[in-house]
Structure formats: C-alpha cells, structure tokens
Amino acid sequence: MKAATYSGLWLSLCLAVFGVTTLNGCSQTVPKDHLYQQLGSTVGIEKVVDALLVEIEHDPQIVHHFRDTDIARFRKLLIEQLCELSGGPCKYTGASMQESHTGFKITQADFDNLVRHLMKAMTEQNISIAAQNQLLGLLAPMYGDVVYR
After folding, report:
1. For helices 129-139 and 108-124, what crossing angle results, to 10°?
2. Is the model's pTM score more than 0.85?
3. Residue 67 in contact with residue 141, Cβ under 8 Å?
C-alpha cells in the first residue's frame, strides 16, 4: 500500500511540476525578433553568411553550383533572407526559392552539405544549438523548392 501511495504522490508531483512549468512557459511571450537577436542581429547574420561562403568555396561537391553566381548579390540576399526569417527588420528582395534554384539539379547530398556548412558557421559564431535548430526549422520547408529542380 505504501508503494502505491508513494508512486501516486510521485506521479502527482511530476504532473504538478510539469503543469506549472508548462503554464509558466506559456505565459511568457517571446519577442518577434528573439531568434534574430540570438543570431547576433544583422552583424551576427553577416558573420554566419561570410563563414558559410568560405565553407562553400572549399567544398568541391557544391562549389560548382555557384560558378556563375554573383557572390556579392548572393551574400546580400542570403543575409536579407535569414534576417527576415528570424524576425529581423529586413525584407527579402530575391526570387522565390523554386525560381532561383531551377536548373541547378541540386541533390539531397548537396543540400545536406550546405546545411552542414551552415551549422558549422553558426557554431563558429557561438550561436546556441536551440537557435540553430530554430533557424534550420524555418529553412527546412524550402527543401522541396531547392532540391532536384
């Protein structure tokens, strides 16, 4: 009988703590630009993009996709896109992902490589894993517009 009582108390305590934690978490509002701030604002995003460009330059598997790309323009547009996606004040002025990737025949392996390079660039800028995952979650829906076009 004691074991059942203790396990019942333990379950009640766990539910109470979980409930309070969940309710407490729900009562806190996260600012729209929270991820933008976690990425280091525009300066941080610029550093991530610059590090990503270095990674791309040294990756023989994907660098050929950028052979005819105006890198300065690509950099500007990627900064705009990451800034807007993360809740920052920027507006993305480029073409749709589908339009801009048609004809490149980007494979899943190419896409995965770019994501790996982006994660490395964010890690080098000391961006938290939680913020990295949040940004990657915002980028993930673009997969179908980028791969095998």
Report:
1. 150
2. no
3. no
Which of 137, 9, 116 shows the shortest CA–CA distance to 59? Answer: 116
Which amino acid does the sequence have at 71?
I
* Helix runs in the chain, H state only: 2-27, 34-38, 41-57, 71-85, 97-101, 108-124, 129-139, 143-146
Q: pLDDT tens digit string along 119-143?
A: 999 999 999 999 999 999 999 999 9
Q: How far is 119 from 111, CA to CA, in rounded Å?
A: 12
Q: Among residues 108, 7, 118, which one has the least CA distance to residue 53?
A: 118
Sign of CA dihedral 129, 131, 132, 133: positive
Among all chains, which residue has been given the structure tokens 């509002």? 29
Q: What are phi and psi for residue 45, nearest 5 degrees?
A: -65, -40
Angle CA 109–114–120, to nearest 5: 125
